[in-house]
Amino acid sequence: MVAxxxxxxxxxxxxxxxxxGVKAVxxxxxxxxxxxxxxxxxxxxxxxxxxxxxLAGFSSPTSGxxxxxxxxxxxxxxxxxxxxxxxxxxxxFPHLSVEENIAFGLKRDGMPKDQIAERVExxxxxxxxxxxxxxxxxxxxxxxxxxxALARSLAKRPQLLLLDEPLGALDKKLREETQIELVNIIxxxxxxxxxxxxxxxxxxxxxxxxxxMSEGNILQIGAPSEIYETPANRFxxxxxxxxxxxxGTLIDDNPDHVIxxxxxxxxxxxxxxxxxxxxxxxxxxxxxxxxxxxxxxxxEYNHVRGTIKDMVYFGSHTVYHIQLxxxxxxxxxxxxxxxxxxxxxxxxxxxxASWTPLSQVVLTQ
Amino acid sequence: xNGKKPPIFGDAFNRRFGKAWLAAGFAFLYLPIIxxxxxxxxxxxLPTTWGGFTLKWYGKLMHDTEMIxxxxxxxxxxxxxxxxxxxxxxxAAFTLVKYKRFTGRTxxxxxxxxxxxxxxxxxxLSLLLMLVSVQRWLGFPERGxxxxxxxxxxxxxxxxxxxxxxxxxxxxxxxxxxxxDLGAKPHQVFFLVTMPMIGQALASAWxxxxxxxxxxxxxxxxxxxxxxxxxxxxxxxRARLGxxxxxxxxxxxxxxxxxxxVVTASYLIARAERQRAREMAAAQRAS
Lengths: 365, 287
Ligand SMILES: Nc1ncnc2c1ncn2[C@@H]1O[C@H](COP(=O)(O)OP(=O)(O)OP(=O)(O)O)[C@@H](O)[C@H]1O
Ligand SMILES: [Mg+2]
Known about the structure:
The structure holds two protein chains of two kinds.
Chain A: E1 10-19, E2 22-32, E3 37-42, H1 48-56, E4 63-68, E5 71-72, E6 83-86, H2 98-108, H3 113-126, H4 142-154, E7 160-164, H5 172-189, E8 192-197, H6 200-206, E9 209-214, E10 217-222, H7 224-229, H8 234-239, E11 244-253, E12 258-262, E13 266-269, E14 280-285, E15 291-293, E16 303-313, E17 317-324, E18 329-335, E19 350-354, E20 360-363
Parallel strand pairs in A: 3-8, 3-9, 6-7, 7-8
Antiparallel strand pairs in A: 1-2, 1-4, 4-5, 9-10, 11-12, 11-14, 12-13, 14-20, 15-19, 16-17, 16-19, 17-18
Helix pairs in contact in A: 2-3, 2-4
Chain B: H1 11-39, H2 56-62, H3 65-98, H4 105-117, H5 120-138, H6 145-170, H7 173-181, H8 186-197, H9 199-214, H10 218-223, H11 231-240, H12 245-286
């Protein structure tokens, strides 16, 4: 978290980008600390690339300020910004070899030849492409091209590195391997990173903080666990991971807990929230925080009854879909800790699903 | 699509018919050329009767100063036309592709392409009218190689622009942005990244405008002056005076030169392809 008094390393201040009436980026403010890996996460068309391009200098904000290390970037063209970007399509120069690609930026800076050679070699070693130095980009695999693009954008030691869907062009398996590798390289170099992705898993594994965007607005900023465990609103809860959302009304407001009544059950919520009685709220519970039992759990709160409609075995866990009385389908994920359940559940069984008061989140919007 | 329709005719018939059709097409294309080559060795001055084999027309060609100077003029004009067309066409194409909005863009793009569809006779005629009036007022330009070049440039520019524009539109704009992101100023982006990437289009535009200029008759006829007769004009005027085996000899020489050029070019391209395939294979083995 950025709790320091000094202004943040990168400040995005109330930035708006208007495309003839459509606000692709709408009053966005973000502070990013030095050395952080920050992810912009959102569905397609929510304005992630637009925001990133304003940081790189390819387009300028309609209003608002971008300040990097105390310097206002307004009016500074891309070639004068201490920022480098790795493009979604990698954008390697097809007519230059791998080492010439990496040296391109250094040559533009007028760096002496021997220093360039030294730096290029270092970069090639960093991304483990030493023996491919003389190859042209079209002679490399997708994963290798991705690493050349990374090396090229790191070669100038930028103050800020921008990654636009860095792993978007790789297949799923390679992507998972590369995520960790990419973070390792970035941490070795110690550069501040803003990355854009629509893959929540990628954001979760790579970023130290995530901003959730929707239609040009920032809905929530926080560490991955914060966003997952305490989503700020229904959109975020639903966007990140799986969730069971139950709509209801707040019927009892006490100093230490509130009671929310939904169609299928009453919720006892114990952690610091208050509201007015009669307020419409939603209660969110993650599938993995729910237990399935045949017997009715104790107490009168936080459990629902239903029939198993679907059951999928995933090895490490089993996912149940339970049809509730109100018609809602409840998703439950139980990890298979032992090899056999004594009394295996099956399709059509009547079961109870329960959860603890602390594992639910009340959302007001 | 594996559901084959039952053939209306037998397979054998279809195969033979296809072959015959192909042969007819080729005959239509190449018989005239073959006839021309054969008649260039004809000893009789009449084009219709065969008078035995001879090389005398080729011998005469060596001393045909009109033809030879026409040839050099054509070559010169074509060379300068191609060079100027590619340079100007590149700028025009670049402007049209990179600057999506400026006043007069539609008109500009229309005007660049207009010579492609305008009948050449009209282009030539209007150019001639303009040159004549300009010459009356200013005393120049004298009609000659210079004015032919200007006419050819007008046409070549249009063709070059179309070819280069198509290639520029295919380029991934992120590559140029990447160059700029890495510190290249706009002119450096152009010379270090854009130009090398469109190199092939530049080369084909050059060749296209070169051949266009080399065999142009209509514009040259309007724009040539005394003492500046291009080779096609010489051939054309001789052919009008009656078919002449010396023309056949010139044509044969040109055909031979073109054939050699085409074969060499395809050989070079094929070799580059093979080289690339080898490198690709090596790359795959190493990874
Ligand atoms: N140059 C432009 N002119 C007009 N509208 C644009 C322009 N660029 C983007 N937009 C609009 O702005 C919105 C945000 O686009 P943007 O490219 O930032 O989305 P994104 O979040 O990067 O999506 P994706 O995940 O699909 O890449 C879209 O609705 C898009 O249509
Ligand atoms: Mg995008």
